[in-house]
From TrEMBL:
Membrane-crossing residue ranges in chain numbering: none
The protein's name in its UniProt record: DNA-directed RNA polymerases I, II, and III subunit RPABC3
Similarity field: Belongs to the eukaryotic RPB8 RNA polymerase subunit family.
Cellular localization per UniProt: Nucleus
SUPFAM superfamilies xref list: Nucleic acid-binding proteins (SSF50249)
A GO molecular-function annotation: DNA-directed RNA polymerase activity
GO biological process terms held by the UniProt record: DNA-templated transcription
Function per UniProt: DNA-dependent RNA polymerase catalyzes the transcription of DNA into RNA using the four ribonucleoside triphosphates as substrates. Common component of RNA polymerases I, II and III which synthesize ribosomal RNA precursors, mRNA precursors and many functional non-coding RNAs, and small RNAs, such as 5S rRNA and tRNAs, respectively.
GO CC aspect terms: RNA polymerase I complex; RNA polymerase II, core complex; RNA polymerase III complex
Pfam families according to UniProt: RNA_pol_Rpb8
InterPro entries to which the protein is assigned, alphabetical: NA-bd_OB-fold, RPABC3
Primary location: nucleus
Organism: Athelia psychrophila
Protein keywords: Nucleus
Amino acid sequence: MASTASNILFDDIFAINAIDKEGIKFDRVSRLYAHSKNYEMDLTVDYNTELFPLAVDQSFALALASSLSRGGIDGAEDAADDKDRDVWRPDGKGRRGLEEDYDYVMYGKVYKFDGGTAEIVTAYASFGGLLMSLTGSFRHMTNIVLGDPVYILLRK
């Protein structure tokens, strides 16, 4: 699935360090703190605990994607498939997007990018009020662009 890779902006496996249920203004929402296994990244993300229950010391896969489409975004899709970018909507054709491979998906926007030090940066995204921050080496976040829409996909 080489063409899928062009839609994936970032992916890694994270281990949960802590989950904070206090101080969150929404019912059934918690904030988790996790550290990635491959890229030494730190993640903070708000998520719905009823839809996607998690526990401290549990690991999960996270991907950030520019589209749920399985086709590439840089010309790999033909014009006929262009109308099917919202693949999560049933179209009667049996098309399945990246969401089929994950347990929990949210759609949002990258609203802030903090330069931090020369090497370490933080990307911030909002998913309808549920917030995410991803901190680590800029080398692993070169595809994440300020102002761009983004999907977060989680899988146990």
